[in-house]
Amino acid sequence: DEADGTDGTGARGRAVVRRGRAVVTVRLALPYPADLAALCAAVRRHVAARTALLTGIPVASVRVRVDRLVPEERSARRVR
Q: I need a surface site. Which of 38, 51, 68, 78 has the fewest CB within 10 A?
């Protein structure tokens, strides 16, 4: 079984269930500069926990694909 979806923020997700376990792929934009490894790890934990909670299906893995990096707003730092 497969499912595709979006969450309204531009993030996209896909899940495939094989042998009773979900393999989830998430595509999203992340802020930059930031600790990208830590953000991806947090996304993996959150998606795995919420998927298991909402569906009752154990999650085998969560793949995070970063489609783009969004620069932080710098205009507040400018001196005029």
A: 78
